[in-house]
Structures are given as C-alpha cells and as structure tokens.
Amino acid sequence: ELTRDLLSDPVRSNWVMSRIPMGRLGDPQDVASACLFFASDAAKYVTGETLAVDGGWLAT
Questions:
Q1: Average pLDDT, stretch 19-42?
Q2: What is the 3-class SS of the chain, one letter each residue?
Q3: Is-contact 48 31, C-beta < 8 A?
Q4: Considering only Cβ atoms within 10 Å of each terminal Cβ, which end of the chain, N or C, has fewer?
C-alpha cells in the first residue's frame, strides 16, 4: 500500500525498478529473514548495526 501510487505510474515504476540491482521489489519474507538473523545466535556478536534490506538500492 505504501508504494501503490508510485508503482502505478509506469514512468516512476520503471525508474524505481532500474535502481534495484536485484531486479525486484522486496517482500515481507525478505525483511523477516533479516530480522530472524538479528534475533539468532548467528548475530550474537553483532551490535548497533543497520542492515539495509533494499535489493542493492544503496549500492547504486
């Protein structure tokens, strides 16, 4: 719902999609997987970090 207006405009939607190296929008499972990592023992020595779950948007 948060991106409905943006993605309903073909010009803006194409621009957004061209900026995502993974080639797709993220879904709730992508965010849940990141949260699960931070809540797991695999992250027991990780503190004060921000994990961008953005398909590579920040890398472009």
A1: 96
A2: CCCHHHHHCHHHHHHHHHCCCCCCCCCHHHHHHHHHHHHCHHHCCCCCCCCCCCCCHHHC
A3: no
A4: N
**Contact in structure between 22 and 55 (CB atoms under 8 Å):** yes
- Identify whether the C-beta of residue 37 lies closer than 8 Å to the C-beta of residue 30: no
Which residue in this structure is represented by tokens 């943006």? Answer: 6
Burial 17-54 (b: 16+ CB within 10 A, else e): eeebeeeeeeeeeeeeeeeeeeeeeeeeeeeeeeeeeb
The CATH fold of domain 4-59:
Helicase, Ruva Protein; domain 3 (1.10.8)
